[in-house]
Give the backbone structure.
Amino acid sequence: MKYTARVAMDKVKIKDSKKLTQSELEELAQVIWDSDSEEELHDDDADTSSEEYIEDDSESEIEGNDSDDLEDVGNSSYFIAKDKLTRWSKNSLKSKFSKVSAKNLVKIFPGAKQQARDIQNEVDAFMRIFTDEMIQYITECTNLHISNVRSQFMRERDAKDVSKTEMQAFMGLLLLSGYKKQNHTHFLELWTTDGTGSEIFRACMGKNRFLFLLAVIRFDDKSTRNQRKKIDKLAAIRWVIDKFIENCKNNYSVGNFVTIDEMLIPFRGRCSFLQYIPNKPAKYGMKVFVLCDAKTFYVSNFEVYCGKQPEGFTAC
């Protein structure tokens, strides 16, 4: 306390300082209390801009008090309590010496990562996702399957092996047809020569070669697929999908707002985990759970729903 006991004793008539009576103690306490209250009032009037006022760290106690106990002082940044001494701050106290919480620190900024910042054109961007390793692997698996079915063709040139460059051109045509919304266009119309077809399709390859590659393309070694399917229903494309997701994560950092949702990829072929969702436009297809950036719509991660996986399956 600012008011010392020695000064208070000078104002109170005390017979024996070693043995104080009950009445003397009460009178001494009242003098000290009155003196401290006067000093606090003087201090508040002298420096109204000071932030050294009584407040609670939580807003719950302020909300718990009755509205009659607090008095709003105009445009001031505090309330005055019913005792006219206690002040409640309208805003939470923020010290200039306090540190930002670790969970609020941005350590990874959204956008392209260092290895993807040197992209100059669309081909470079494509090769960041579908790397040379992936295309080479798909080409080798496709050629293995072509060698097994070559005997079914009368002419050897109708079932010749595919090169890495031709595989890139084939995948480019598939992406272009999807981008141009040509999935509902009749296939033969893409190769028509009357001006209504797509000239780039005829420039890349003939329609018979395109149909052949569409039938024989493979994403794994079919001779070992049955063994891998014992622990993974998605064994036919698992390696390519894992590489694709890895490249998506390594080339771009998502922002603070992401979306996790399911999408149905239209498909009516033979598949053990084909889904039927009546409220979707396609109704039949493969259900995929996708993690996307809410602003740029970049796909950061996804997983194909295969139902209940066999024992021994380990998710990535």
Confidence is low (pLDDT under 50) at residues 45-67. The first strand starts at residue 70 and ends at 72. Residues 22-46 form the longest helix (25 residues).
